[in-house]
Specification:
single chain, 69 residues, mainly alpha
């Protein structure tokens, strides 16, 4: 399952964590619900799927940020 949020680039078009507070809360709420429904699921970022994927998204470490869910 993939979850996407709008943003991720700064004013110069470079990768940056641009999530608003509302996006942070909404993402946390959604991931918490999904993790309870699918307890074996891993929460990782797009770039963490494979060493051959060369993407910056998301512009934060999802695996580390949501480790405790």
């Amino acid at each position: 399952m993939g979850i996407c949020y709008e943003g991720g680039l700064n004013e110069e078009g470079r990768p940056a964590d641009t999530r608003t507070q509302a996006q942070r809360f909404a993402l946390l709420d959604l991931l918490t619900i999904l993790k309870h429904q699918y307890p074996e699921a891993q929460i990782i970022g797009h770039y963490q799927l494979s060493a051959s994927i060369h993407k910056a998204c998301p512009c934060f470490d999802a695996q580390k940020e949501y480790f405790t869910i």
